[in-house]
C-alpha cells in the first residue's frame, strides 16, 4: 500500500470530511498477498492543497506511518510502494528516460511525477551540467596551453641536462640523470602553468552560478527537539570516525613508502626503475578502495535527512581528500641527503620530482575520479537491472492484459478500475522492481561528490570539469532509465530547497582555500615568479635568451661524496655512474652546499608563497561576494510564480 494513501485517511478523518476512501482490495497470488488502498480524486485534491499551504516545509509523510513501519520490521508486511502510472511512464520514456535525449533539457514538469524533491534535484543537476560546459572548455584550453612551454628554457634544461641526481630510495636505487624525467616534466607543464591561476579564479566565481538555482527560499520550518545526550553520542561517533579516517590516511602514507621500497628491491627491473611511480599508482588504487569501504560503512548514521547530510559530507570529505591533502601539501617534506626523514627510523619518506609534486596530485585525482564515476555507474545500473531480472525469474510469468483493460490503460485516469487479473499483473510488475526509500534520492546527491573534484584542487586537475560534464550526461540518462523502468515509484515529497545547499556553499569556501594553497604552496608558480624577477638573468641584466634560463639549476642543491653522512646514507654501488664515481650529486631544495642549512632564497620564496595565498583568497572572496550580489538568489521566474500562486490562493480563500 502507498504511504500517501494511508496518510490520506488520517488527514480526511481529522478534518471531518464526509469523503471515505475506497475499501482496501485484497488479492492473493500463491505465496503473496497484496492489499491495495485507493482514495477518491477529491481527497488527492485536498491533500495537494494542504501540502501547498503548509508552513512545515520539511514535513515528511514517513513520520506518521509508525504502525506500518512496525509491521514491516516484524516481517508481517514485506513491502510498501506507490504504483507506477503506465501513461506517465510512457511519457517519461519518450521525453526523458532514453539515450537519444542526452542533449535535451530536463522535462521538469514531467519529472514532477516523482515529487518536488526529485524534480528540484534534476533541475539543479541539469543546470549544473549545462554550466560545466564553459569550465570544461577553458580547462581543456589551460591544459593544452602548456604545450606552448615545450620549447622554453626550463624544459630544455631538464631534457638536455647532464646533471646526476641522488638516489630516490635506499639500497637498490642508483643515481640517475635529470634528463630521464623529460616526459614527466612535459606532463607537469600541461597543468602547472600560468593559466592555472586564472582558471582557479574563474572556477571560484563560477560556483556562484551553480548555487543560483538552489538557494533557499524563505520558509518557516517545524520545530525540532534537541537531546544533549544524543548530540554527545553523535559527536563521539563522528570524532571516532574522523580519527579512523585520519588513521587510514597515515596507513596510506606508510603503504606508499613501503611499496616504493619493495618495488625498488624487487626482481623486475622495470618496476625497480619506476618504483616511485608504481607506488603512487598503487597508493591511488588503495585510496579508491578506502573510499568504497568507508562510504559503505557510514550509512547507518541517519535519522533525519539534514542530519544525515552533514555527517555524510564530513565522512566523505575526509575519506576523499585526506590522501589528496597529503600529496598536495606534505609530500616531499623528507629532509636532505644524509638527513632524510624516516618512518620508524627505517623507511624513507617519498620526495617530489624536480618538476614538483603537482603531477602526483594530478594522477591521483584522475585515477580516483575516473574509477569512481565509471565503476559506480556500471555497478549501480547493472545491479538494479540484475535484481529486477532475478525477481522475474523467481516469480511466474505475467499474463497479458485483457483487451478491455489494455484499451483502458491508454486513456484512463489513475483512479480508474482494472479487472482483478490485470490489477494483479500491474501490482506484481511493480513488486518486482527494486525497492526505494527516503534516502534513494540522497544517494544520487551523494554521487555528485564530483562537484568537490571540479572545484577543490581544480588548479591541479583542470580536466576535472570536462570529466564531470561527460559523466553527468551519462549519469542523468542512467538515473532516468533506472527511476522509470527499474525502480518502484518514489513517494512524492514537498520541498522548498535542496538539502545539500549548505554543503555546496561549504565546498565553495574550501575550494578557494585549497586552490590558493595548491598554487601558492604546491606548484612551482611562485618559485618561477621569484626567480624571474629577483634571481634570473633578467633581474641581474645577463639575459641572453629568456628570463627563465638557469631556473632548474637554481632549484637544485649539491651533496658531496666526501661527506660522511652521504657515505652512511648510500652504498658505493648506488653512487656509481656509467662514467665512474662523481664528486657531487644533486637534489631538489634550496640548501647550503656545506651544512645543508636553508638558504635565504628558500625563506623568501616561503614568504611570497603565503603572501600570495592571502592575496589570492581575499581577492576571490571579494569576487564571490560581488557575484553573489550581482546574481539573483533564485530565478525571477520562480519568484514570480510563487508570488502569483500566493495571490491566487489568497483570492480563492477570500
TrEMBL record:
<keyword id="KW-1133">Transmembrane helix</keyword>
<feature type="transmembrane region" description="Helical">
    <location>
        <begin position="315"/>
        <end position="333"/>
    </location>
</feature>
<protein>
    <recommendedName>
        <fullName>Anoctamin</fullName>
    </recommendedName>
</protein>
<feature type="domain" description="Anoctamin transmembrane">
    <location>
        <begin position="215"/>
        <end position="641"/>
    </location>
</feature>
<feature type="transmembrane region" description="Helical">
    <location>
        <begin position="498"/>
        <end position="521"/>
    </location>
</feature>
<feature type="transmembrane region" description="Helical">
    <location>
        <begin position="127"/>
        <end position="150"/>
    </location>
</feature>
<dbReference type="InterPro" id="IPR049452">
    <property type="entry name" value="Anoctamin_TM"/>
</dbReference>
<dbReference type="Pfam" id="PF04547">
    <property type="entry name" value="Anoctamin"/>
</dbReference>
<comment type="similarity">
    <text>Belongs to the anoctamin family.</text>
</comment>
<dbReference type="GO" id="GO:0005254">
    <property type="term" value="F:chloride channel activity"/>
</dbReference>
<dbReference type="InterPro" id="IPR007632">
    <property type="entry name" value="Anoctamin"/>
</dbReference>
<feature type="transmembrane region" description="Helical">
    <location>
        <begin position="232"/>
        <end position="258"/>
    </location>
</feature>
<keyword id="KW-0472">Membrane</keyword>
<feature type="transmembrane region" description="Helical">
    <location>
        <begin position="448"/>
        <end position="470"/>
    </location>
</feature>
<keyword id="KW-0812">Transmembrane</keyword>
<feature type="transmembrane region" description="Helical">
    <location>
        <begin position="602"/>
        <end position="631"/>
    </location>
</feature>
<feature type="transmembrane region" description="Helical">
    <location>
        <begin position="278"/>
        <end position="295"/>
    </location>
</feature>
<dbReference type="GO" id="GO:0005886">
    <property type="term" value="C:plasma membrane"/>
</dbReference>
<feature type="domain" description="Anoctamin transmembrane">
    <location>
        <begin position="112"/>
        <end position="212"/>
    </location>
</feature>
